[in-house]
């Protein structure tokens, strides 16, 4: 499975961005998708995840209420809509795919495939 993230850029604080991740290979509708991010000098952290059928979503406390993860299984795409961005959201954002169980959905180790990352920079 290959994943290609896009949509990052420079945005002012309070602004919004929509990240996209295109998947190829494998059966997209059979695996869960997630977004992680890594800020300079920090470890990669969980942001959001969505089940294979799109029925259940998960968010980190830091983005809940501001970010929305969604997917289009017909187009093999997953999205991350981000609003109310602040400086702390500056990071490289990665999409990832795998078959996590509920207890592991927020863990990096649960995901097999990773995109190359897209940089989001929020100016204050």
Task: Report on this structure.
It is a single chain. The protein has 124 residues and is mainly β. It has no helices and 11 strands. The chain has strands at residues 2-6, 9-12, 17-24, 32-38, 45-50, 57-59, 67-72, 77-82, 91-98, 111-114, 118-123. Strands 2, 4, 5, 6, 9, 10 and 11 form a 7-stranded mixed sheet that branches. Strands 1-3-8-7 form a 4-stranded antiparallel sheet, with no helix packed on it. Strand 5 and strand 6 (57-59) form a beta hairpin. The protein is globular.
Briefly, what is this?
This protein is mainly beta and 124 residues long.
Average pLDDT metric? 96
Count of DSSP strands: 11
Counted by DSSP, the helix tally is 0
Large-scale geometry: globular
Percent helix among the residues?
A: under 10%
Poorly predicted tracts of residues: none
Distance between the termini: 37 Å
Primary descriptors:
124 residues, mainly beta, single chain
Question: How would you summarize the topology of this molecule?
Answer:
Elements: E1 2-6, E2 9-12, E3 17-24, E4 32-38, E5 45-50, E6 57-59, E7 67-72, E8 77-82, E9 91-98, E10 111-114, E11 118-123
Parallel strand pairs: 2-11
Antiparallel strand pairs: 1-3, 3-8, 4-5, 4-9, 5-6, 7-8, 9-10, 9-11
């Amino acid at each position: 499975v290959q994943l290609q993230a896009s949509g990052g850029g420079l945005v002012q604080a309070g602004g919004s961005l929509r990240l996209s991740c295109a998947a190829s290979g494998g059966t997209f509708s059979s695996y869960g998708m997630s977004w992680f991010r890594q800020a300079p000098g920090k470890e990669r952290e969980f942001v959001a995840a969505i089940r294979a059928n799109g029925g259940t979503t998960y968010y980190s406390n830091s983005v809940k209420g501001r970010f929305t993860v969604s997917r289009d299984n017909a187009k093999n795409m997953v999205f991350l809509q981000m609003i109310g961005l602040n400086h702390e959201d500056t990071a490289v954002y990665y999409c990832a795919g795998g078959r996590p169980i509920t207890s592991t959905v927020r863990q990096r180790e649960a995901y097999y495939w990773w995109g190359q990352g897209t940089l989001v920079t929020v100016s204050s």
